[in-house]
Amino acid sequence: MTQSILTICYLFASITFILGLKMLSNPLTARKGNLVAAVGMTVAILGTIFLYRDEETGNNLHNYGWIFSALIIGAIVGTLAAKKVKMTAMPEMVSLFNGMGGACAALISIVEFLHISHQIHNGADAAYISAIRPTVMIILTGLIIGAVSFAGSMVAWGKLNGKVKDLSFTGQNILNLLVLATTIGLAVWLVVHPEQRWMMVVILVLALCYGIFFVLPIGGADMPVVISLLNSFTGVAAACGGFLYDNKVMLTGGILVGAAGTLLTILMCKAMNRSLKNVLIGSFGASAQTASGTAVQGHHKEISVADSAMLMAYANKVMIVPGYGLAVAQAQHICHELEELLSQKGVTVKYAIHPVAGRMPGHMNVLLAEADVDYEVLLEMEDANDEFKTCDVVLILGANDVVNPAAKTDPASPIYGMPILDVELAKTVIINKRSMKPGYAGIENELFFKPKSSMLFGDAKKVLQNLVTEIKAI
Amino acid sequence: MENILTWISAHQQLLYIVILMIFVGIEVIGHVPSVLHTPLMSGANAIHGVVIIGAIIVMGKAENDNYLALILGFFAVLLGMLNVVGGFVVTDRMLEMFKKKK
């Protein structure tokens, strides 16, 4: 009886996961979709705690004290961390939580492996060892993928908040492949000789190293793609648990995320017009060094805040191009204030949102939505590109690579082929940046040296505040 | 080799689920607009937190005196819960901002 109820709980949870994911991919239903999946998850967790019976012994679960204290601590810390985090730090947070999931999968594998090796060392016969091999294989798969996902996510987290720097050296790819091949080779060996339990530790360490090496050379601009990929890895690691416990909800949830995550990774790559292979093997930083001939030099001209304010206040149409600079400066609210002020003066103000502006696809939309910017004035790239020629002023706030014409003109450029915002079609381009330093991809931007362009140096928030004051005074 | 074959036929139901879920996973998010990439990633991130069920089972089965398993299991449940709760709350916070304002 209780078993059937648990089965229904799991069935219900599986349906909510599929439905939740489906609803999450539509802006109108997304929030409800998240809630639906959360309800399903709660049902599955509570069901497992109270209704699960061990198949071999028929016993209920025990150690409730341990389970509940872990659940409560996890829930409190998780909620606080998720509530406290700033909007700009969202990508890091997702990476961090993803790493936790990976670590969870790896820990499960460790405990299960210890359990099996305990049985073997207590004198299990050859038949047991031979029958347990496929299980060991699943355990090790979960261990390796979980550990790679954990270590990789931690590095990605560190990179996004600036604690970890890019590191690449020649032969890195070969070293990585070597580490991966050794890990898999040793895992196969361990499946054949499951009694050698120390080997599990070696495999764990190697997998952790691989996770670190795998993410280290990848440039910060590609982090969203990497996080999405690691996300799907964790999904697969969770699915391994599904095989281990013959648990269909773990399998459904895990594989669902594994597949959806992989597709999402590919979609993100497509938005940047790059292949996944390119992201993983040829990192931005590395290719920028080889394409050294692309450096553009020339003179840029600066513009004062007062002149910029004048230009915008007397324009018919202003297009704002937000980038990561806006996000780090937390300037979304003041940006909205500028937009409203200009609108009151009869200026049409719109935003051009590049799909990969900021650190994550959709990052700008989330940020501007937080500042109450109307959904209607946010233009996607194609629509924005149609409208630039009717714009008098384009104000670029801390965006760089997404407006770099080299993506169109210079085949040697590492971002060649990425669709960009054609800001040059507008009459005047004002670029707000903190300095002339190249952007995240580490490449020069010839846009800054064009006759139409003027640089407005300074922190996005301060500059916008000054602009607002100036425009009010006009 | 024989083991593997026996294992496959013993787990054929699960293997069918794997194949079907791969297609379902690809199909359901096939038409997502790029605006929703980040929240979708975050939502999917919370869903793979289902791995916590495995952690609860490990923990619940561990013998009372097997402290290594208890400690490892404790951390597994804790981290899994962080993944689940944190993932759903973060996603909700992101999506809260997409509300249509009139």
List keywords for this structure.
heterodimer; A: 474 residues; alpha/beta; Rossmann fold; 2 domains; six-stranded parallel beta sheet; 18 helices; B: 102 residues; mainly alpha; 5 helices; 75% helix; flat
Describe this structure in words.
The complex is a heterodimer of chains A (474) and B (102). With 474 residues, chain A is α/β, with parallel strands linked by helices. Chain A folds into two domains: 203 residues, no CATH class; 178 residues, Rossmann fold, CATH 3.40.50. Helices cover 61% and strands 7% of the residues of chain A. In chain A, helix 15 links the parallel strand 2 and strand 3. In chain A, helix 4 packs antiparallel against helix 5. The radius of gyration of chain B is 19 Å and the shape is flat. Chain B is mainly α. Chain B has two domains: 31 residues; 69 residues. In chain B, helix 3 packs antiparallel against helix 5 and helix 4 runs antiparallel to helix 5. Chain B has five helices and no strands. Classes of the chains: A alpha/beta (474), B mainly alpha (102). The interface between A and B is large, with 119 and 82 residues.
Spatial order of strands in the largest sheet of chain A: 3-2-1-4-5-6
Helix content range of the residues of chain A, please? Answer: 55-70%
Q: Count every beta strand of chain B, where a strand is a DSSP E run of 2 or more residues.
A: 0
SS element count, helices of chain A: 18
Overall shape of chain B: flat
Q: How many distinct helices of chain B?
A: 5
Q: Which H/E pattern describes the elements of chain B?
A: HHHHH
What profile does the largest beta sheet of chain B have?
none
Shape of chain A: elongated
The ordered H/E elements of chain A are: HHHHHHHHHHHHEHHEHEHEHEEH
Biggest sheet record of chain A: 6 strands, parallel
What is the averaged pLDDT score of chain A? 87
Structural domain tally of chain A: 2
Radius of gyration of chain B: 19 Å
Number of strands of chain A: 6
> Percent of residues of chain A in beta strands?
5-15%
In terms of per-residue confidence, which ranges of chain A show pLDDT below 50 for 5 or more consecutive residues? 283-295
Number of domains of chain B: 2
